[in-house]
Amino acid sequence: MKKILITDGMDKNAIEILLNQGFDVEEKFYPEEELKEKIKEVDVIIVRSATKIRQNIIDEALKTGRLKLVVRGGVGLDNIDVAYAKARGIEVRNTPCASSNAVAELVLCEMLVLARNVKLANLTLQEGVWAKKKLKGTEIHGKTLGLIGFGNIARSLAEKANNLGMNVIYNDIVEHIDARECFKFAKFEEIIEKADYITVHTPLTEDTKYMFNKEVFKNMKETAFFINCARGGIVQEEDLLEAINTNEIAGAAIDCFENEPQPIEGLLNHPKVTVTPHIGASTREAQERIGLEIADIVINYFTCILVNASGC
Ligand SMILES: O=C(O)[C@H](O)COP(=O)(O)O
């Protein structure tokens, strides 16, 4: 019987599907040292972003040769040493589209929260201060949204923002064809200088590490907001804090931190920074879609192996 280990949770219906297909499923988080042992006993491991599948874990798996498939329920693969695993015959898969809408909706929510000073309004009212006069906000309608990276999430967000009357400009490694000409390709520097909301949607790689730093924040508008629902590490967080404290930018919304689950204090406690604990993909709908896609990936993987083995 093929054994599946799920370490960061998975939709219950999808687990049911795997059980009904005859897989032996264990759902439990193992800290690194324990995972080094556990990984030797499983054929498949299913993770989100909390579990790290680094070379040391893969090396342990190779001692028994049982691990065949690593599935990332979600998009970012920066917690898995993909090339190392694949070079050793272990397949790695993710679910690249299933959570796009959920993350795009969170970014949209963050823009409105920033525009209308919702965090400050909450904090002051909870302290008994009726700060109505100080809380005059702005509207996102008519403002410019600058997207850095134009993959599935950014495109979903671009559509929504466009429907709400925003101008959308984007930068990516390639210029995308947009027949309706709703979204305009722009240089990175141009987006930084022009946009009222800058939101990053790239993976964390050697090229994007600290892409947002002192120099970049210095060139943003004083009224602009910065949003990161992509990955910590793309942003130099100390530089972001300084830019907000010196009024170089107006504020930020951060869902992904360099050091999770213990972000730096300065960001957590700042009245102009909205913080959430990496919940972009955490909607019921997204997790259902992710679960079903994972079940499909696992079932297809083993079906193909059987078909190939029988020489069909
Ligand atoms: O890369 C992703 O899919 C998102 O960052 C969500 O990560 P999570 O599954 O750990 O919430």
UniProtKB/TrEMBL annotation:
Cite the D-isomer specific 2-hydroxyacid dehydrogenase NAD-binding domain residue spans from the record. 111-280
Taxonomically, the superkingdom here is Bacteria
Q: Does the keyword Electron transport apply?
A: no
Q: In this record, what's one Pfam family?
A: 2-Hacid_dh
One GO term in the molecular function aspect is: NAD binding
- Give every D-isomer specific 2-hydroxyacid dehydrogenase catalytic domain span: 4-302
State the InterPro entries in the record.
D-isomer_2_OHA_DH_cat_dom (IPR006139), D-isomer_DH_NAD-bd (IPR006140), NAD(P)-bd_dom_sf (IPR036291)
* UniProt entry keywords in alphabetical sequence: NAD, Oxidoreductase
A GO BP term here is:
L-serine biosynthetic process
Kindly give the SUPFAM superfamilies that the UniProt entry links to this protein. Answer: Formate/glycerate dehydrogenase catalytic domain-like, NAD(P)-binding Rossmann-fold domains
| Family membership noted in the UniProt record | Belongs to the D-isomer specific 2-hydroxyacid dehydrogenase family.
Q: Give the protein's recorded name.
A: 3-phosphoglycerate dehydrogenase
